[in-house]
Amino acid sequence: MLRTLLAVLLLLGPLAATAQESDLQTILQEHQADIAKPSRSSVGPALDALKASGLPEVPAFLEDWRDKNVWYDADGLFYIVDQKKIADVTTRDPLPSVELASLTQIKPNGGVRKVISEALVDFQLSDPDITRRTAALDAIARNLDPAQAGPLAASIENEPDAALKLRKERLLNYLTARYGDTEEARIAAIESLSNDLSVDGRAVLSQILSTKTQIAQTIPEGVNLARVLKPGTDLPREQAYAQIAAVADLPPVLSASDLKSALESQVQDGKIAGVSINTLSEASAREAAYDRLAAEGKLAPRATEDSITATLAAYSIFDTYDEPSTAITDAARATQDAVNTRVGASQAADLALDAVSLASIYFLAAIGLAITFGVMGVINMAHGEFIMMGAYTGFVVQQFIPNYTVSLIVALPLAFAVTFAAGVAMERLVIRHLYSRPLETLLATFGISIALQQLAKNIFGTQARPLTSPAWLDGNLAFNEVISISYIRIAIFVLALLFLGLLLFILKKTRLGLEVRAVTQNPRMAASMGINPDKIKMMTFGLGSGIAGIAGVAIGLYAKVTSEMGADYIVQSFMTVVVGGVGNVWGTLAGAGLIGSLQKGIEWLNPSNTLAAQTYMILFIILFIQFRPKGIVALKGRAAGD
After folding, report:
1. How far apart are CA 539 and CA 557, in angstroms?
2. 3-state secondary structure of 142
3. What does the pLDDT read at residue 208?
4. 157 with 240, same domain?
5. For residues 290 and 272, what is the distance between their CA atoms, to the nearest angstrom?
6. Is 327 domain-assigned?
7. What is the pLDDT of residue 45?
8. Number of folded domains in the chain?
């Protein structure tokens, strides 16, 4: 007897183990037809059974089912097939004995895949893999479903990632605001959205405040009325009548061309309704003829001005909220008004931040020109090419130093040295022979500009070259969902402030600055005091060119580096110097601020046409110079007279 019992147990042991391993397969077999040939309307019970089972292999199966990796054989057993490799649906062990030709692939349609993805969210919300949890939150955000509120709330407490936990709480608040169990809970969630300036939060409020237009002779009682549309004010009279006519089956409004075509179809022996067509040149005569034919039943009736007025007086056009609760829509409307106010203020602050950022870029590009043109009076049309040379210097350095932080530290002084040397060479070879001859200087530097562009094309080609910023400059500094600025622009702003302080120090506190100011105001007197004007002019021109090279490195971190990049900044640089005040560092700063703010303001008013924005800006500057020819910060004393 004992031997028999042991034999039975030995025989049943593998079967029991197989049954335990096939728990998932067992559930699938119970819903075999719905899984093998799924439809959106019938797949629900199978998904509910899988979720209720609590089996750890269910999420992986759902992913495979969604991705069309589930197959079944003639007996209805399911398998996983990935890249033609067949595996057990539960253990994922390979099954080399099963032939792919004997299996049939399950191909759920888009609707079924969407339902499966929604079911996967419940599992993914607590998945150890953060990418899966993030994907689950993305799926919830795309389609707020009240059924997801429970699993989402249950996953918040044990969420280890602070950012994801905050996002889960925010999504749960969205779900509560739209689908909460009680009116009090919904109102509390809605009011908390006043601090949420995100697009998703504003969308939730808009969905709560969604309306539909209705037409009735008397506004029904008990509806959640949003507004009553007044014909002639909120919408044109004819449009209002057309909406009412479509509902109440009233005669349509005929346009002049429709009325004329209808009358032409009734012409007989040169007459319409017994009246000669020669007498129907006036619109009123044609309308009268049409109405006579309509009274005789020969044409369909039309809406007249009197009937339109009577109809508009008898009917009301009004919008009602889809949400039946007045308290909820009142809370949502108050919250939306508060959010819109904060968004408007944040957009203004973001625009101001963009203007300051652009002004810092223009200041960096123009400060070198402020020295060469403002102090020396040299119209250097090749200034943009010194910016380009600095940017290419940064690119070359990065080819030899792969560490972007170190390469940036090396590139800044090296760009200054390269462009300083180029500026000194240009001043010694060309500029010093053309002082007090502005037209010849302009033509000569313009020719040098073209030559430098072509040289850059010959060396680096015509394709844009990357100047990669360090990793610590990636991303944005976000103050809220509306206000943000990239770290690169912050770095450029800081660099502009450093240069402002450095130039003021050089010009006000050093011997070189003293000699530059002396030569600028009175070269002969400076020479009589032992100052070499030629040397000072050479150093000044080199200093302005070197600063342009550093500006090129900074600008190249976020803009394209090409042989023509200097042309994008030469016009703005000249405008910055002229508008701010020639020969004044503070004037250059003021000019950069004005032009940056003006350009951003015009682009905000007309965002689709940046060329028009630049045109309007130039026109404004021309008018500005007419009223203040010496700029915002004009020089005083003897230098002003020069």
Report:
1. 28
2. helix
3. 92
4. no
5. 9
6. no
7. 86
8. 3
CATH number at residue 393: 1.10.3470
Report d(CA 484, CA 582) in Å as an integer: 34
Q: Using 50 as the pLDDT threshold, list the residues of the chain that sit under it.
A: 1-22, 637-642
Given 173, 201, 236, the domain boundary residue is: 173
Burial of 488 (0-12, 13-18, 19+ CB in 10 A): buried
Question: Please, are residues 332 and 180 in contact by the beta-carbon 8 Å criterion?
Answer: no
pTM: 0.70
Contact 365, 492 (CB under 8 A): no
- Identity of residue 518: A
Domain that holds residue 546: 344-641
Helix crossing, 162-179 with 183-192: angle to 10°? 130
For 56-99, give the DSSP string: TTHHHHHHHHHTT-EEE-TT--EEEEETTEEEETTT--B-TTS-
Same domain, 364 and 221: no
Q: Provide the β-strand partners of residue 212.
A: 320
Measured distance CA(620)–CA(573) in Å, rounded: 16
- Within a domain: 616: yes
Q: Are strands 476-478 and 484-486 parallel, antiparallel or unpaired?
A: antiparallel
pLDDT digits 0-9 by tens, 202-239: 999 999 999 999 999 888 888 899 899 998 888 888 88
| Amino acid (1-letter code) at residue 500 | L
- pLDDT for position 341: 92
Does residue 5 fall inside a structural domain?
A: no
Residue 548, CA atoms < 13 Å, CB-side half-sphere? 34
Q: Cα angle at 448 between 447 and 449, to 5 degrees? A: 90
- Tell me, what's the pLDDT at 22? 45
β pairing state of 104-105 and 275-276 = unpaired
Distance from C-alpha of 595 to C-alpha of 618, rounded to nearest angstrom: 9
**Can you tell me the distance from the alpha carbon of 563 to that of 556, in angstroms, rounded to the nearest whole number?**
12
Model pLDDT, residue 13: 40
Counting DSSP H helices and E strands in the chain, the numbers are 27, 11
Return the pLDDT at 189. 92
CA distance 61 to 509: 75
The reported pLDDT for the residue numbered 620 is: 80
| Three-class secondary structure of residue 385 per DSSP | helix
